Amino acid sequence: MTLFIKNYFISYLCNCEESIHHTIISLFHPNSLKEIKESRSRINPNMVKGTSARIPEKLIDSYNLSIQSNELLIKLELFGITDELANQDFLEALKLNKTETQDQINQKSRDPIENGSFPTKPFYTLSQKLKFYDNSNIQCFFEATKKIIDNNLTHVIEESISTREQSGIDTKIIIPRNITNPWEMILIDSHFEEFPHLNKLCLLRNLLRSTNENVRIECRIDPTDFRSPNHQKLISLLHDTDRSFSTSYQKGKKISIFTEGKTDAKLLEKAFGMMYPFLTDAFDFDGHVHFEGGATLLRQRIESLIGMNSTFKVIAMFDNDGKGRSEQSKITKNKLPHNIKASNYPDVNFARAYPCLRNSQISNEDINGTGAFLELYLGQQNILNGDKELPPMIIDPKNQGSFVDTHRKKAIQRNFEKNLIELKHESPENIISKLPETNEIFLHIFELCKNQ
pTM higher than 0.85 for the full model? Predict the structure, then answer.
């Protein structure tokens, strides 16, 4: 398996155990799988000055998976691979390298010369190497990585006077002599195989962060790497739910999103597929229920899963109204299993001053926590009534909000479905921008996933 970021080959992510291969593959959506003819390369035997150190050898049947870097970053977030974790991993590995270098110095009576020589290696001595680590930080890594990937920097072939024969011309593979930055030299020389990172997924996140743009990521797979001699077996591997998620998720099953009823789940699932198509293989919106329920039934379903010691990964999303908050608090008053989360929809900005009917008078009130049920998240343009105004609510004595017009919920749902049909040919980014309240629900779910 080989990984390419903006067409630059990253070997460190490929020369690893098979479980890491499976995890990396699971980051790509199965629908992106394509059969290709790939050129297998080998060391250039002619060793002509200025040419690449490797040349194509033959074409082989391979499979290609692709994803955009911004989408891949979101998937890594779901696996718990955050910027904070990636930073911490880098610093811990940097500290380890410093300790190892100092130990090597202490074991010698004098400062030893590094194996290899400049320009193959960036340091003459281990003391220089230790000083380099002392002055390094993650920003140095970002800047060097960006330059290497953007300019496709790699080894070159150089002619020199042969030391063995004392005459004639010899050739060797070196780092380009115009590159003098130690970080660039180390990363090019090792092809990202030897530098501070302990967790390979943290490395992947930092590589993506260094690009500062939305670039194409490709994964090339030789079927023999996974003992999968044909296309169908490879697809089966990609769809294998036991390997679809990293080990930070228990046995890697899909995450089920439970809502207060099948209509809520259906609407959210449609919108999610249009906003985040690359994540549709990661979530199951209320896939285990086929009837309307409500907050109480949702709570009972979660309590049943807890009582059965279920290993399913579940996020229960309650409405942000009086009933939803009450039932959600009954679950969360006790510590939940690590695989189960229960939350309310996040607050809606425009609901902080929403028209409510009290004593025959309309006044603006904050209905987050009393009347922010799902319909308030389906786009303001779909909520407005015939007068292009927000339909007023009433708040009952139990702190539960409802529309004055009892048919308004169904009308909003129909408007939302029509809106999705109108948006079906637009990009996910445009759809997100036109349905910001719906997207707030999904962003809230992503946050809950990171802590699961």
Answer: no
